[in-house]
Amino acid sequence: MTRKTQMRIVVMLIVLSSVSSLLSQGQSIPINESPSPARTYHLLREDDDWSFLADPAERQDFWDPIKYIPLRSGRNDWFLSMGGEAREIWEQIGNDNWGQQPFMNGYFNQRYMFYFDVHYGKHVRSFVELKSGSNSYRIGGPRPIDEKKLDFQAAFFEVGTGGDRNWIKFRAGRQEMEYGSGRLIDVREGPNVRLSFDGFKVKTGIGSWQIDGFAMRPDLDKPGFFNNVPNHSVGFWGVYGVRSLKKSLTLDTYYLGLDRKAAAFNRGVGQEVRHSIGARLSRAVAQTKPGWDFDYEALGQFGSFGSANIRAWTVASETGYRFPTVPLKPRFSAKVDISSGDDPRTNTLGTFNPLFPKGNYFGVLATAGPGPINFIDVHPHVETALPHSVTASVDWIFQWRESLRDGVYSVPGFLIIPAGKSDARFVGHRPGTEVRWQANRHLWFQADYGIFYAGKFVKDSQPGRNLNYWALWAGYKF
Fold this sequence. Notes:
- The chain has an 18-stranded antiparallel β-barrel.
- The longest helix has 22 residues, at 3-24.
- The two termini are 30 Å apart.
- It is built from 4 helices and 23 strands.
- It is globular, with a radius of gyration of 23 Å.
- The protein has helices at residues 3-24, 64-67, 96-99, 456-461, and strands at residues 69-70, 78-95, 101-120, 124-136, 148-162, 166-175, 197-206, 209-220, 229-230, 234-244, 249-265, 268-283, 291-305, 308-322, 331-339, 348-349, 375-386, 390-400, 408-409, 415-417, 426-438, 443-454, 467-477.
- Residues 1-35 have low confidence and may be disordered.
- It has one domain: Porin, CATH 2.40.160.100.
- It is mainly beta.
């Protein structure tokens, strides 16, 4: 990192800290207390609900004047809400893809987003969110996930009807989607440019169920101004249902369909029509007393790839135990996951497709290293809560190939190392750590570090270098 870049990052952090300190003055909620649920900034900002600010007594934050702007006299449900975020990251990757780029690549990413959420009564709504991302210093120039001058991240119109338990909403336009743990459908929060889709969605509430049906095309990210377009070579549709059960349990069930005109796997390129049927059972992390939490998911996939059939599957699990009543509130957990790979000697494609997974599927090393395709992993993890709203975690992932006749793929699904150069199963292992400081409701800082040590398969396939990654993050939401 050059001295000029270091100075930019230091100045940026000082400015953010100073602004946040000024904006926090006058808040009645102390910085070291958790915000109430009503003031939570969600991953999808469309889920933020600021209608409670219709009561002037609730307006305590610096940003509250723009979170609720009444639009019609005598009607509290006619209002405009605005918000956004700024995020800065310095990332550095050494030996990307185990040495296929045998150098240290350091770069600076900036992201800015701003939204307008207009409610025309209880049943009509429009939501527009703008995004802008820039990349500096990256060797080879910015990738599509790094840079976007200015475009719509979301722009949809929604109409609905019904009460609290039974309701229906219809939405059309550009939208973000995130379901379950993000293993299959996520907004790609880690990279600089988030993912969005164009299409239609029907959201329904039926008793204790919420069921979404959708037909979408993912957006093709282009670096210019308002030039993103739907990817007409990819179709995506499905039905996703969520239900709350007893004892803090949540059940997800879903069907997802995918049509890609030119899909690439280790065996070749062809049209892929894939259907996924699965379920997920999860329990939230304990908050007040010691207890178990878990997240278990399994799904099967079938369809066609060119003239071949598709038969693929995955099983994913995370089991944890938290001690919220002892110092540091530690949580110990372990993930054990497996997804199928291919045997090109058959007329059936066995490679699992994770569809649109979260960018940091395995935590640290969000945009580098192996993805959740043709893999077996064991992933222990320890996290703690330190004073002054600081959290720290340490993890270690060990990864193998499920099929020795299939290769290793990246998180987005690109083939990194093809099969055939080695019969070894072990891909490698990676220790990593993350420290995050939530300075107040708006401002946060984070540091990540990890090294992925090449296993026998990677070394046999050459160049087989160890991959290392670190990043410094700063963000502000309002």
